[in-house]
Structure formats: structure tokens, C-alpha cells
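EI: anyone free to look at a 290-residue chain?
SC: sure, send it
EI:
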Amino acid sequence: MESFIDSSSVLDRPAMLRGRMARYGYLFFRGLLPVDVIVALHSAIMGVCKEMGWVDAHNHPVGQPRLEGSSEFFEVYDVVQRMEQFHAFAHRPEILRVIETLVQEQVFVHPRNIARISFPKAEFFTTPAHQDFVHIQATPETYTAWTPLGDCPQELGGLAVLAGSHKRGLLPVHKASGAGGLGIDTDNIDLPWHTADYKTGDVLVFHSFVVHKALPNRTADQVRLSTDYRYQGLSRPIVADGLEPHYGRLGWPEIYKKWQDSDLQYYWRDLPLKTVARDPSFHANATEKK
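SC: here you go
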């Protein structure tokens, strides 16, 4: 795989940032976010993992991998979804500045925020190559900010992007294991994969049409934590269920119950949003992998 093109040095050059996004479908930034904020969120989530017996005192996994979507997975994930700092992290000004440069209007932060907890010895469940649009829908001009919560060398399973693949439009999907349940066959796409050995504070921003995948966690005893936050221009439509919590197990009142600050609660209700219905055909018509 090739290395990401680091756009940190052109952060103050909007035209160049938009040009790189148009060409590659992603922007990668070294050290965009403050380390202490990331360390605090990592500690909070890992603390829950300790309480539930997922990891030991040294953050090493205990027992079998907890696969996303399984009943035991929600022992921790429901607690994470209630965390005020987890949702507040999506509103970091460093990320909003980048997104505003891309959309060139007021940024809308999706309230459906996602945390990933990736165990070793679960390569079969690694998120396959896919495009986010089939899950987000409404407008292609939606951007995901992916952030590892700590150093993430390739063996720990960071994200890789098929550079320039957003120009191919929507691609056929097949059923797959891993988060999202849908994959794309990339064998005949002659484009390079880009990735990095991520450091704490790095951020990857990418277009909803760009093909990307997780690398398998091939460490012996480390759990990878990361976050997915999504953004778009305020004038663009959003699917109605995109305003609900991830997985829909909890309602916002339950999530907000112990928050200290109300500023980020229901912030979208007073915005002039246009909502549209979700198209279920992507999952309904997905073929079996050949």
C-alpha cells in the first residue's frame, strides 16, 4: 500500500484542500486534534471495557472477541453511546474547519455517531471494502472523519482508502461480514490503496463515494478504538433515521440523561433540515459474494 498524502501543510489553503479531495476522495492530517482530548476519550471507553471484563488492567483483551452487533457487544456500546464526551468530540472545531472548507456553507454535524471496538483474532469480521453512501444516503456530499483513539500502526488495523475511487460512482454491493454487512469487489479496480501508521491526533476525512476498508487487527493483545463522525452542508438532505442514535437501541432522552451540558442536545431541531426516506434496496438487493 502507498502512504497517505498529508494535507497538514495546506490546511490554510482552501482551494488546494478541495482540489485534493476532488482528486483523491480523502484528506489526511497529521496531528490535527489535541492529544489530551483523544487520550481522555480512549481512557473513558477503555474504562468501560475494563468494568465489563473485556480487557484486563493492561488493556489486553480477555476471552473471545466481542463482535459488533452481538448481544454482548452492547454491554459496552450502550454505555459509550451515553457518553457526553463521545458525542461532543464530533463537534471539534479543528474538524469543522476542514468540513466547512469542503462544503462552503454552514456545516451540519450528524448526531448519529459511531465508535468502533476492534479485537485481535477476529480477521474474518474486519470491515470490508465499501462506500459509506449506501449506509448514509440522502446526499453524496457527506464526509466521514475517522479518528483512531491512540497510535494505530497498520498491524493494529487502521483504515485504508482506494484513492480516487469516488470518481467511479456507486458500485455494486455484495453481502459481507463485518460492520455494515455490505462489501464491494475491488479486484478489477486499478487504483492504489493509501493508508498510514496513524499517530494520536491524526484524522482521515473522506467522501461518501470513496471505497475504503479496515485493515485486520493482527496484534496479539491490543484492542483498537476509533470513531466515525459524519458531516455535510446544512442545505443538503439527510435521511430521517440519520437523526437517531447509532443502532437505534437507545433514545435521545436516555442518552442525554446524565449529561452536564445541554448545548449539544437536540441541536438539529431548530435547523432548517430537509429529511428524506431511506432507500432499503442496497441491502435488499445485495448479492452473495462470488
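EI: DSSP finds eight helices and 14 strands in the chain.
SC: 👍
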